[in-house]
Design a protein that fits this description.
The complex is a heterodimer.
Chain A (H helix, E strand, L loop, with lengths): L1 E10 L3 H10 L5 E5 L15 E2 L10 H11 L6 H21 L13 E9 L4 E7 L5 H16 L2 E4 L1 E10 L5 E10 L5 E11 L20 H8 L4 E2 L4 E8 L9 H4 L3 E3 L7 H4 L9 H13 L11 E4 L5 H7 L1 H11 L8 E10 L3 E2 L5 E3 L5 E7 L4 E2 L11 H23 L11 H12 L6 H15 L3 E2 L1 H18 L13 H25 L8 E2 L7 H4 L1 E7 L5 E7 L13
Parallel strand pairs in A: 1-2, 1-9, 2-6, 9-17, 15-18, 19-20
Antiparallel strand pairs in A: 3-5, 4-5, 7-8, 8-9, 10-21, 11-14, 12-13, 13-14, 16-17, 21-22
Helix pairs in contact in A: 1-4, 1-11, 2-3, 3-11, 5-15, 13-14, 13-15, 14-15
Chain B lengths: L16 E9 L9 E9 L5 H12 L18 E4 L2 E4 L11 E5 L6 E3 L2 E2 L2 H9 L19 H6 L1 H4 L12 H5 L6 H11 L7 H8 L13 H5 L6 H16 L1
Parallel strand pairs in B: 1-5
Antiparallel strand pairs in B: 1-2, 3-4, 3-5, 6-7
Helix pairs in contact in B: 2-6, 6-7, 6-9
Classes of the chains: A alpha/beta, B alpha+beta.
């Protein structure tokens, strides 16, 4: 066991983690721990763009962006947080450009902007060009640019370090504060304790609870899982975004930018069905609406293909030069993985699990909440792991790349400010024990259950029962399934007993987090008896503001059961309205 | 109305076949010896090689070790040598492959375990070329202006995902580990030809080193290996020309 001491420890090296590191590492001793290499992070898979009301190509302002974000989130957005994000969006984009990000350009040499789902001019009048982009690889460019600047600034990385526990210590006045993390080093199997004044969680999402997902294998919600096991709350976990256009059967993401550039969704009859569901902005409606519309077309027998189980994304009317210049990667995905030529053939698509709106509750300073009002001093979260909540019940496209930059920066600043004002907290007794015990248990288990079997069954039942449409019956079924899988997980055993690059061991650990988080998602979803944003209940079709205009707060009890509570939504200037597009 | 898929592409009832996957196994924690182990696995035409590796790990041998993350060719984790060619395992479809596969780690970097190599020498070369925008003077209030034509000038080399497929396909790199390698030069190119950047001289000086661009023998292995389709040899040539042009 090794012990390290830092001012700030950042967990995760995607967009949020590296953006935070750029702020904290020039003022404090900062370490960034990642279970991958920084450039492998899933920020790099984001495609379409990052919205900011630069008004480089047409009139726009950040207040319109705020309104769209609030309405897009079906009014569950904390409006003060959305205001912060949309106001700071402009500088966030300009900062990235100055760091070197190669945005596409207008004829005047400014950052070019294009349309994206749910982003409108003047409170819903018409689509607006707000998304700043670099072809359809904006996330790749953000990840690379942030890493390049981390190299420039000499940021200290610990690559392939899996953070499996958060350390909390009691201050003299009795308040519980962050005091570090415990990490498992993949290369050696060694356990490392990082003693720190501030801890920033930037670990991303947990899309791997679903089978059909755009998420990487490594998106197993470790950060949320660690928080959960500490008894700290998770907020709005029932809200999971299903991106409309995953490659059918595979889930690989095809950016909404395709529709921003003019692509059209069609059913088996060739009909542009979004005209029926969202007459004003049609294919550029927010993702929850488009995903449900697609699922509905399939359900009513208008799906395409021999099994009528997908719809078609039609780019065939777009000029080839436009496709090549603006959508090169996603058209390549269609060619590589489905053998479809998007110039001439429509692409089979179906919704794919994409993004967790919920997560670790924070305030706008990225401080982690331990309940509705109090923070855990020294603990911060930013990006998909966090729930500020700027996305409410449904995130608008591009707002995730925005979120990681705005709140990653805020987390880095806040973590450094705090660290400069406090002494290094004492570590709790036997800090590494929990991780050491977990690792030992998995290495010595003589059970007969396999990681892949349990994971596969979890993903299947989640796809079947907790996807785009949910009912009390389906959620009860998946909850029962998860309970059984958790029992079986106690009997999981692995064949690799070694210390060196034991990826099988880590997959077993990750599965434990997935099971925990799937359960929180499902229990939260059962409790919300309404349909709002990404949470569509077929037994409660309407949004119910009277009873459910509030955030879910889930807490793990000492006996492992889940207690649910509510947190008020912050409303500033927008009153909830019917959500029509 | 416009097109509707005539071919049911995504769900064409594909037939599975049994594929023999021969993998170079090495775990110094157990033995210094390299073993070749052959696994038989069912493969669909739509399976990626990564799916096969995952099936083997999940169902036959949990000790098989390889890196992977995004599984669709953007994160760069799973570069490996597949039937003698550097590829990303998640970008190779079985419909394009024979029924026998031979899989080894990428060459020229120390093997840590099975298909996992030590990436540190690779990233060290990357860091050495100052892969970040270097500007002087007062920054603008808003963005630096850049014409789309100037932006297009270096577009190709912005696509790099640092997977190391190019560098570890380079015969010069195999024989001389201190050569910067194609990926580092690609990332230098990305800034040297960026109209906003003022660090070209510094980078060219670094690449003019005896371990720099002049070691390139133009074998085109790198260009063929690149999963992102970057014309790497051309980029290296442009860096060489920039050196000659500025020096001569």
């Amino acid at each position: 066991m090794q012990t390290h001491r830092y001012d700030v420890v950042i967990v995760g090296a995607g967009g949020a983690g590296m953006r935070a590191a750029l702020e904290s590492s020039n003022r404090t001793r900062t370490a960034v721990l990642t279970k991958l290499y920084p450039t492998r992070s899933h920020t790099g898979a984001a495609q379409g763009g990052m919205c900011a009301a630069l008004a480089n190509v047409e009139e726009d302002n950040w207040e319109w962006h705020t309104f769209d974000t609030v309405k897009g989130g079906d009014y569950l957005v904390d409006q003060d947080a959305a205001e912060v994000m949309c106001r700071e969006a402009i500088d966030a984009v300009l900062d990235l450009e100055k760091m070197g990000l190669p945005f596409n350009r207008t004829p005047a040499g400014r950052i070019d902007q294009r349309r994206f789902g749910g982003h409108t001019r003047n409170h819903g009048e018409a689509p607006v060009r707000r998304s700043c982009y670099a072809a359809d690889r904006t996330g790749h460019m953000i990840l690379q640019t942030l890493y390049q600047n981390c190299v420039k600034q000499g940021v200290e990385f610990y690559n392939e370090f899996y953070v499996l526990d958060l350390l909390l210590s009691r201050r003299a006045d009795g308040v519980e504060v962050a005091s570090g993390v415990v990490a498992y080093e993949l290369a050696t199997g060694e356990i490392h304790v990082f003693n720190a004044k501030s801890v920033v969680l930037a670990t991303g999402g947990f899309g791997k609870v679903f089978k059909t997902t755009s998420n990487a294998h490594t998106l197993t919600g470790d950060g949320m899982g660690v928080i959960w096991r500490k008894g700290l709350p998770l907020e709005d976990m029932e809200f999971f975004q299903f991106h409309p256009t995953g490659l059918a059967g595979l889930g690989i993401l095809l950016s909404e930018a395709a529709r921003g550039e003019g692509a059209i969704l069609r059913n088996s009859e060739g009909e542009r069905f979004m005209e029926r569901y969202a007459p004003t902005i049609k294919d550029l409606a927010p993702r929850d609406i488009v995903a449900r519309s697609m699922a509905n077309e399939v359900r009513e027998g208008r799906g395409a293909g021999p099994h009528k189980d997908y719809v078609l994304l039609d780019l065939t009317h777009l000029p080839r030069e436009q496709i090549d210049a603006k959508l090169p990667d996603i058209t390549e995905f269609a060619r590589t993985y489905l053998g479809v030529e998007p110039y001439t053939e429509p692409v089979p698509v179906y919704p794919t699990a994409h993004y967790a709106m919920g997560g670790v509750p924070t305030n706008v300073e990225a401080e982690v909440l331990r309940n509705n009002t109090d923070v855990v001093p020294g603990l911060y979260a930013a990006g998909e792991v966090a729930c500020v909540s700027v996305h409410g019940s449904n995130r608008l496209g591009t707002n995730s790349l925005l979120d990681i930059n705005v709140f990653g920066r805020r987390a880095g600043i806040a973590a450094a400010d705090y660290a400069l004002g406090v002494e290094l907290p004492d570590l709790p007794a036997a800090a590494e024990d929990q991780v050491a015990t977990m690792v030992r248990r998995l290495l010595t288990s003589t059970g007969t259950e396999r990681v892949a079997t349990i994971r596969g069954e979890l993903q299947n039942t989640m796809d079947r029962n907790a996807q785009v449409f949910r009912t009390e019956e389906s959620l009860a079924e998946v909850q029962a399934d998860i309970a059984k899988l958790k029992e079986r997980y106690a009997e999981v055993a692995i064949s690799d007993k070694g210390k060196r690059y034991n990826s099988e061991l880590l997959e077993a650990v990750e599965l434990g987090f997935l099971l925990d988080l799937a359960e929180v998602l499902v229990v939260s979803a059962r409790n919300r008896k309404e349909s709002r944003g990404g949470h569509a209940r077929e037994d409660y079709l309407e949004r119910d503001d009277e009873n459910y205009m509030k955030h879910t707060m889930a807490y793990r009890q000492a006996d492992g059961s889940i207690a649910l509570d509510w947190k008020p939504v912050v409303q500033t200037r927008y009153q909830p309205m019917a959500r029509k597009y | 109305m416009t097109a509707v898929a005539e071919r049911p592409v995504a769900v064409e009832a594909p037939k599975a076949r049994t594929v023999e996957v021969k993998i170079r196994r090495y775990n110094p924690e157990i033995s210094d010896e390299v073993r070749w182990v052959t696994y038989r696995v069912e493969a669909y035409p739509t399976d990626r090689v990564l799916n096969l590796l995952t099936k083997i790990k999940d169902e036959q041998d949990g000790t098989l070790t390889f890196r992977r993350s995004c599984a669709h060719g953007v994160c760069g984790s799973d570069a490996m040598r597949i039937n003698g060619v550097n590829r990303l395992a998640c970008k190779v479809l079985m419909k394009d492959m024979p029924a026998k596969l031979t899989i080894e780690p990428i060459k020229g970097l120390p093997v840590e375990k099975d298909l996992v190599v030590d990436m540190e020498p690779f990233f060290e070369a990357y860091r050495a070329v100052k892969p970040f925008l270097i500007t002087g003077g007062n920054p603008p209030t808003k963005e630096w202006l850049q014409s789309q034509a100037d932006r297009d000038r270096y577009d190709d080399t912005t696509k790099c995902i640092l997977c190391a497929a190019c560098t570890t396909s380079c015969p010069v790199f195999w024989t001389d580990g201190s050569y910067f390698g194609p990926a580092a030069i690609v990332n230098a190119h990305r800034f040297i030809f960026d109209s906003r950047d003022q660090g070209a001289e510094e980078r060219l000086e670094i690449l003019n080193d005896r371990e720099g661009v002049w070691r390139c023998r133009t074998t085109f292995n790198c260009t063929e290996a690149c999963p992102r389709g970057i014309e790497i040899t051309k980029a290296i040539k442009e860096v060489k020309q920039a050196l000659l042009f500025r020096r001569v």
